[in-house]
């Protein structure tokens, strides 16, 4: 496809499908070198479609059509029109059976969309528009059909044959071939279709639902990996129980299968009853997977399972509604994660990720609303905005209407829409109707791109014993509370922002929250109140305050906004030490650190030395002192904001000054607190063998943060410490953390550790990914040369997305090296994107997103970046996927 045929699709153009497909019967024959797909569709005119009879149109991609028939009669040349992507039948009967036979070539399908080969097996990925690569079909989510699928294949090489639903027969058919038939009792959109034909090992288990139904669970993995499946099965069972307990949602399936595959574009896919997963989110063993891997597996397994209700039972009318299922399901997996691990630390990590990914996205060329207005390639909109900001929007609804009303809203949503393909409006309507809260203005969050700025100022009146809080909002970063008038542009109607507030007293105690005009009962006894900011500017007066409070704003990050309030350094230190809201304790520390790093970056960029105050070290020392109270929290509080996040706060980014400033502060802390760090490291050691429990993981996180600070000293002692940990660790968390620390240090230990790590793990694909990424993430000046060299290493494979993400995407996220002043990082990545695009446009387009923020850098860097992007953009045969991303970046 070229740019002329790539069309922009608009949300406003939605029309119901002219035909519905009631049932689908597929026969899939795996032959040597080809796959034949016979399909029988029962179609009928959609009673809800437009009155004038439209033709029947089906989608296809890469199909070699062998035969076509309607009601058993082969189609003549005049009966239809066929292009490479559409099959049109002009005057079809109102109800018909359409039979098609096509040949497809999964062995050469490197896009990993549709049916494709990975190693020696065959797998599918149909979301968003992969089903059209398997057979002719009206490929859109508002057409739901019942499926029967029969697979035929060589028994020795493809012994496992799976599809959605329940087994409905299997057998041998002679000459070494066998067949298996599957029937899915649920009507589903074609993006939830899946099949697998491969050689796989399986771990089976069972789950009994709250009403006593038994569900057969099965996790299929590459032969030899059964000892890495237990955690995924356990996560699945916990997720199933959790959804019953928290949302009253029971599993509707007899069989729930998860298949892990090493070649996969994204994380995982919620195909009805037959999830297909990237191996990364299934396989785990103490010595191969880190604590973060274990927790990600929990979350992704839960996410895909939760989709069975939020996505499958109730699905999306069209792809603009993607956040209907993704935002809601991320919110659900976040809540699951919070209940499984520490709620506060879970929230902190999510907000850290939101700021590192979604805020830059919302400020860059790919900014789009949670519900986008248009797209060229839908796969480019599986974004942090749709997923993570979408989850924040759902969370804000919960905050505004309360937990119980939110649950009633979910119940009402399923009561109204089970079995339907619906819109974000339907979801919000259920929440509004169940709660009685008017969410009309709130819906602006779905339609308006950009991160709102929230300005706050406070004033304490000693005489009146009142604290007046003024809040104002705008989408314009440059506006200030002082020119609030300018904010009120007709283009920017205000958001409905829930602002959770607490007031801290001198000793860290929560003060009463009584708001003028409400009567004293309303606020007494509450330590946090959620204010609704619905106008451009509003004031809230808190009464009966005996002394000036330190205000704690946006507790638990109650809205995805950029908050501006001029706390003094002392007030931030007070909040860091005392706020009853753990998120805001962490946040206060992040603010303090950001202030220092940004000021230092400015100093360094004009040749002045950085200034590091002792007060910051004192705050860090207090954190270390109390670290045992909550090691996981202490680890988060000691971790400085990342470079990409900090860069968003700079007008013109100087990446090397920023990098030096951030690492300068780390080194200063290490120099001042070396003993305390070492003490903390030693006292949190575990003698017990590895356990993936939150408590043990928290201790490891804390120790490894201490180790990484000590690494900043580049001392023999620190190197020896890291090397000792690297060699003696009984688990990947500690081994990898030691390697990551050494990888930042130009020393002999680094070379030894990297070599021995590869030597030991070269047969474990997922561990090799870690080896690649730790090198691509290194701050050492020769990192680009190393990455170039690794392209040629047998460990790397441009066809495997995990390898591409590990090496190339990690390099693109290596702020100081990717944004090298000479443009070398830009030219390197652009060239790789061009190469990759010929194999896998989806992954190439994801990689191209690393260029999003190029305009934030200085003139010489901008020149290099635009040169690299222009060159990429002009490549012959560039995919619509990459073209859309690069085109927007250059706009
Ligand atoms: N629905 C999947 C999920 O749970 C994502 C699949 C998207 N795949 C794609 N190629 N766009 O997150
Ligand atoms: Zn999802």
TrEMBL record:
Q: Cross-referenced CDD domains, in alphabetical order?
A: M1_APN
Molecular function as annotated in GO? alanyl aminopeptidase activity; metallopeptidase activity; zinc ion binding
User: Keyword Zinc on this protein?
Assistant: yes
Question: Per the entry, which co-factors are needed?
Answer: Zn(2+)
Query: Peptidase M1 alanyl aminopeptidase Ig-like fold domain location, by residue?
Result: 450-565
Supply the EC number(s).
3.4.11.2
Peptidase M1 alanyl aminopeptidase C-terminal domain sequence ranges:
569-891
Q: What SUPFAM superfamilies does this protein's entry cite?
A: Leukotriene A4 hydrolase N-terminal domain, Metalloproteases ('zincins'), catalytic domain
Please provide an example of a Pfam family that matches this protein in its UniProt record.
Answer: DUF3458
Task: State the reactions this protein catalyses.
Answer: Release of an N-terminal amino acid, Xaa-|-Yaa- from a peptide, amide or arylamide. Xaa is preferably Ala, but may be most amino acids including Pro (slow action). When a terminal hydrophobic residue is followed by a prolyl residue, the two may be released as an intact Xaa-Pro dipeptide
Organism's domain of life? Bacteria
GO BP, sorted A to Z:
proteolysis
For the Peptidase M1 membrane alanine aminopeptidase domain, which residue ranges apply? 232-445
Q: Enumerate the UniProt keywords alphabetically.
A: Aminopeptidase, Hydrolase, Metal-binding, Metalloprotease, Protease, Zinc
Q: Record's Gene3D superfamilies? A: 2.60.40.1840, 3.30.2010.30, Neutral Protease Domain 2, Peptidase M1, alanyl aminopeptidase, C-terminal domain, tricorn interacting facor f3 domain
Aminopeptidase N-like N-terminal domain sequence ranges: 88-192
| Listed PANTHER family | PUROMYCIN-SENSITIVE AMINOPEPTIDASE
Show the NCBIfam families listed in the entry: pepN_proteo
Q: Which protein is depicted?
A: Aminopeptidase N
Q: Gene encoding this polypeptide?
A: pepN_2
């Amino acid at each position: 496809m070229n740019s002329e045929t790539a069309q922009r699709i608009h949300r406003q153009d939605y029309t119901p499908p002219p035909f519905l497909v009631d049932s689908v019967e597929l026969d899939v024959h795996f032959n040597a070198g080809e796959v034949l797909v016979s399909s029988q569709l029962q179609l009928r005119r959609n009673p809800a479609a437009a009155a004038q009879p439209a033709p029947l149109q089906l989608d296809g991609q890469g199909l070699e059509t062998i035969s076509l028939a309607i009601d058993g009669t082969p189609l003549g040349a005049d009966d239809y029109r066929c292009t490479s992507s559409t099959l049109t039948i002009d005057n079809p009967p109102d109800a018909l059976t359409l039979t098609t036979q096509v040949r497809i070539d999964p062995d050469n399908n490197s896009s990993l969309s549709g049916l494709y080969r990975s190693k020696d097996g065959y797998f599918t990925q149909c979301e968003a528009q992969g089903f059209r690569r398997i057979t002719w079909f009206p490929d859109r989510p508002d057409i739901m059909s019942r499926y029967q699928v029969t697979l035929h294949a060589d028994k020795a090489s493809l012994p496992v044959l799976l599809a959605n639903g329940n087994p409905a027969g299997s057998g041998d058919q002679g000459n070494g071939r066998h067949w298996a038939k599957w029937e899915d009792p649920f009507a589903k959109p074609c993006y939830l279709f899946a099949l697998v034909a491969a050689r796989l090992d399986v771990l089976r288990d069972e789950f009994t639902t709250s009403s006593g139904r038994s569900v057969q669970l099965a996790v299929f993995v590459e032969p030899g990996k059964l000892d890495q499946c237990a955690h995924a099965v356990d996560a699945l069972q916990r997720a199933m129980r959790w959804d019953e307990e928290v949302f009253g949602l029971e599993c509707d399936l007899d069989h729930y299968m998860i298949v892990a595959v090493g070649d996969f574009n994204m994380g995982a896919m919620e195909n009805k009853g037959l999830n297909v997963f990237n191996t990364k989110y299934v396989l785990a063993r103490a010595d191969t997977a880190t604590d973060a891997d274990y927790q990600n597996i929990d979350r992704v397994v839960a996410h895909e399972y939760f989709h069975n209700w939020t996505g499958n039972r109730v699905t999306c009318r069209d792809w603009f509604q993607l956040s209907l299922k993704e935002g809601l399901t991320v919110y659900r997996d976040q809540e699951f994660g919070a209940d499984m691990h520490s709620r506060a630390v879970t929230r902190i990590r999510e907000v850290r990720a939101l700021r590192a990914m979604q805020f830059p996205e919302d400020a860059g060329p790919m900014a789009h609303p949670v519900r986008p207005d248009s797209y060229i390639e839908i796969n480019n909109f599986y974004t942090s905005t749709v997923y993570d900001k979408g989850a924040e929007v759902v969370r804000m609804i919960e905050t505004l209407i309360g937990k119980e009303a939110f649950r009633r809203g979910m119940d009402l949503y399923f009561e109204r829409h089970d079995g339907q393909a619906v819109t974000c409006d339907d979801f919000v309507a259920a929440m509004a109707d169940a709660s009685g809260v008017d969410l009309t203005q709130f819906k602006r969050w779905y339609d308006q791109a950009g991160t709102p700025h929230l300005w706050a100022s406070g004033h304490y009146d000693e005489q009146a014993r009142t604290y007046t809080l003024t809040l104002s909002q705008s989408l314009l970063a440059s506006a200030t509370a002082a020119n609030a008038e300018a904010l009120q542009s007709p283009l920017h109607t205000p958001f409905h922002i829930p602002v959770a507030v607490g007031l801290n007293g001198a000793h860290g105690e929560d003060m009463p929250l009584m708001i003028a005009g409400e009567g004293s009962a309303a606020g007494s006894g509450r330590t946090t109140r959620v204010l609704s900011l619905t106008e451009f500017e509003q004031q809230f007066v808190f009464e009966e305050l005996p002394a000036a409070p330190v205000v704690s704003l946006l507790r638990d990050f109650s809205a995805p906004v950029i908050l501006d309030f001029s706390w003094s350094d002392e007030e931030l230190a007070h909040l860091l030490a005392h706020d009853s809201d753990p998120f805001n304790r962490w946040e206060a520390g992040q603010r303090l650190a950001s202030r220092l790093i940004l000021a230092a970056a400015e100093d360094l960029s004009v040749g002045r030395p950085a200034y590091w105050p002792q007060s910051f070290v004192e705050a860090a020392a207090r954190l270390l002192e109390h670290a045992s109270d909550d090691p996981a929290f202490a680890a988060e509080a000691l971790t400085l904001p990342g470079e990409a996040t900090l860069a968003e706060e700079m007008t013109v980014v100087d990446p090397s000054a920023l990098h030096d400033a951030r690492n300068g502060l780390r080194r200063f802390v290490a120099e001042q607190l070396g003993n305390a760090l070492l003490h903390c490291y030693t006292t949190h050691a575990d003698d017990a063998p590895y356990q993936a429990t939150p408590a043990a993981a928290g201790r490891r996180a804390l120790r490894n943060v201490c180790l990484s600070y000590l690494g900043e000293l580049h001392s023999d002692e620190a190197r020896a410490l890291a090397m000792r940990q690297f060699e003696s660790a009984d688990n990947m968390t500690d081994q990898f953390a030691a390697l990551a620390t050494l990888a930042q240090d130009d020393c002999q230990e680094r070379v030894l550790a990297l070599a021995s790590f590869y030597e030991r793990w070269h047969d474990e694909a997922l561990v090799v990914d870690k080896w690649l990424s730790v090198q691509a993430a290194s701050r050492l000046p020769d990192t680009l040369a190393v990455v170039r060299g690794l392209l040629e290493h047998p460990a790397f494979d441009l066809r495997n997305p995990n390898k591409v993400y590990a090496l190339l995407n990690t390099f693109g996220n290596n702020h100081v090296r990717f944004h090298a002043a000479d443009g070398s990082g830009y030219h390197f990545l652009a060239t790789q994107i061009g190469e990759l695009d010929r194999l896998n446009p989806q992954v190439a387009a994801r990689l191209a997103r690393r260029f999003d923020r190029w305009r934030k850098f200085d003139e010489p860097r901008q020149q290099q970046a635009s040169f690299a992007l222009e060159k990429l953009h002009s490549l012959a045969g560039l995919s619509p996927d990459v073209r859309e991303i690069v085109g927007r970046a250059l706009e």
